[in-house]
């Protein structure tokens, strides 16, 4: 594995960092998260139009840039540094790959160029267990069902030749503002239960979307209610459902690699800000950063961040190069990155002293990102348990005992 970044990758990082430094400082961040959309539409337009970020990992024939998950992960590392609220995760990491993998040629040609241009945003709505389980990161998703009977979820049925969806999804990232919803729904009744994916316009009659209060305001979530909403099946009508759950599992490893890089960027930035602060704050006539105990604590954080970066880069590289033996590295890399972010954010709050935990200071935003991501995509021990299970590390352990 060649760990050196190419000139193109370096340019992506540099250009993106410069733009975010100008357009997504602390005041702009707080204004964006309090807006109805939960993000700055002008910033998103600049990221999509000027930098092509929305189509970075999409093929050129669909209006994308033609890069891989590696470049998308590097870009998300920069957005993670400033906690930039944007539809990037929901649209480009979670939804667009499923449309590319499972959609018909007409659906790809009609939707992917708009997603790549940033003119259309999308969200993935999966009912039932947490998103990380559906993506196969914390358990085998082969038994996942999008709902049924008293279990709730989302039901799909044929009415006059059209598909209609009825049900509710409680946690949908960017679901309140997305122009397109990709909904997992239960079809076939109990005798022939199966899960299919459906395309639903965000403003479709019968769709009620309510933004929810979230721990991490930079990751807005919504409750989506579907009341006999017309939908379009993703893929061919006679294609069957055998490819849906494997596609979600394959998506999970790539999403984990991208999220790991994003967490590494956030951890690196909060560490930088903490180092800068301890060099300025004085106690007993000298900067507290000169105390050996403070140096040791920050050195531990630095080692954790660098180790997490190596794991995240390796996971992104493995997914981009489709090395099956290495693709299970996404979950462990995300676990390591989440732990590094939580450690960096906690130390940042403590070493900032009395101002570190106040609402006015930005340190609390990084801590909330760490805690929120663990709730959404972790926790770390479950990610590692699933990776160990998938690798067969404990196969035959009971028999051996």
From TrEMBL:
The protein's name in its UniProt record: Acyl-CoA dehydrogenase
Domain Acyl-CoA dehydrogenase/oxidase N-terminal: 6-118
Tree of life domain: Bacteria
Known cofactor(s): FAD
InterPro entries in the record: Acyl-CoA_Oxase/DH_mid-dom_sf (IPR046373), AcylCo_DH-like_C (IPR036250), AcylCo_DH/oxidase_C (IPR009075), AcylCoA_DH/ox_N (IPR013786), AcylCoA_DH/ox_N_sf (IPR037069), AcylCoA_DH/oxidase_NM_dom_sf (IPR009100)
One Pfam family of this chain: Acyl-CoA_dh_N
Keyword field: FAD, Flavoprotein, Oxidoreductase
Coiled coil: none
Domain Acyl-CoA dehydrogenase/oxidase C-terminal: 257-390
Record GO terms (molecular function): acyl-CoA dehydrogenase activity; flavin adenine dinucleotide binding
SUPFAM superfamilies in UniProt: Acyl-CoA dehydrogenase C-terminal domain-like (SSF47203), Acyl-CoA dehydrogenase NM domain-like (SSF56645)
Similarity comment text for this entry: Belongs to the acyl-CoA dehydrogenase family.
